[in-house]
Backbone:
């Protein structure tokens, strides 16, 4: 009997690769181009990607024996789910593996915004002592608005509450009691905009969420709000955000994700009231080890026709 063949395109921790090698032929082609992927995809039963690789309808048209696509992480916006479903290809992810890492990064970004940490560090490295110019603000007593109260949002809520913040939550897929159980007070999106000192976004990128934070949304927010996004690029209208920052409607923003990645040195990235990190919220050794094991086990379960924990389609 022929063993299954698995292609890894964006790297995978050894803990996950070892699980796969025990049952499959594994080929690690980290950094493979879109053109090369389309040429070779036809010989694999499974493919494991992260956010870089785009599994498009064109690629899937060449995937004659592909049975399962695994996303070693949460977001699946880089996979054409409709095309996969039409070809009866299962898509699975590892939604719990990076939860703590992303939640901690979100809180780190909030603290950095509140206390001007990036400006303080860069000024010190330039030989400056800007003590009086870098007045910060406390998190205690402030209102923290969560857009999306799923796995990550729940962990962020727990940590924000530990600072003595009032946590508000908006999530159209949860009822009020579910949101309360996850550590936030349920509110409408407009109320969240109006009341929050900090707003953190934790939603997937979809037609419904694309540019959900646009000029109209920023205008509805409390003046001086600070924005944090460790979710997906495209959820925020970056042009509108820049305008809101320049008008001081938004006091600052901390962004780990961008509509185009890498974004280059755009006016938004370069702005002194913007903290920008290169999509590293999930980049901890612990999170990547968990993601590797979770996705490897899910891929093997899908190939063997066993029940799945995290089937997307």
Residues:
């Amino acid at each position: 009997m022929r063993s299954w063949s698995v292609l890894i395109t964006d790297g995978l921790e050894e803990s996950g690769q070892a699980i796969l090698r025990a049952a499959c032929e594994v080929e690690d082609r980290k950094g493979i181009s879109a053109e090369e992927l389309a040429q070779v995809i036809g010989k694999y039963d499974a493919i494991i990607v992260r956010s870089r690789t785009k599994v498009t309808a064109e690629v899937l048209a060449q995937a004659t024996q592909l049975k399962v696509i695994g996303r070693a992480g949460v977001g699946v916006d880089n996979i054409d789910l409709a095309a996969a479903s039409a070809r009866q290809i299962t898509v699975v992810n590892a939604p719990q593996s990076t939860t703590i890492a992303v939640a901690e990064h979100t809180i780190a970004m909030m603290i950095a915004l509140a206390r001007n940490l990036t400006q303080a560090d860069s000024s010190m490295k330039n030989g400056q002592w800007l003590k009086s110019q870098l007045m910060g603000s406390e998190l205690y007593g402030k209102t923290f608005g969560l857009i999306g109260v799923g796995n990550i949002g729940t962990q962020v809520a727990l940590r924000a509450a530990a600072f003595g913040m009032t946590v508000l939550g908006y999530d159209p897929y949860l009822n009020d009691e579910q949101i309360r159980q996850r550590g936030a007070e349920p509110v409408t999106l407009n109320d969240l905009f109006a009341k929050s000192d900090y707003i953190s976004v934790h939603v997937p990128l979809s037609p419904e969420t694309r540019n959900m934070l646009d000029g109209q949304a920023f205008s509805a927010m409390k003046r001086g709000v600070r924005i944090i996004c460790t979710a997906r690029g495209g959820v925020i209208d970056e042009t509108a955000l820049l305008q809101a920052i320049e008008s001081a409607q938004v006091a600052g923003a901390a962004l780990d994700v961008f509509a185009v990645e890498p974004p280059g040195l755009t006016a938004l990235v370069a702005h002194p009231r913007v903290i920008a990190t290169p999509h590293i919220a999930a980049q901890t050794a612990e999170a990547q080890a968990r993601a590797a094991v979770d996705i490897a086990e899910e891929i093997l379960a899908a190939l063997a026709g066993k029940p799945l924990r995290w089937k997307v389609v």
In short: The first helix runs from residue 14 to 21. The mean pLDDT is 96. The chain has 13 helices and twelve strands.
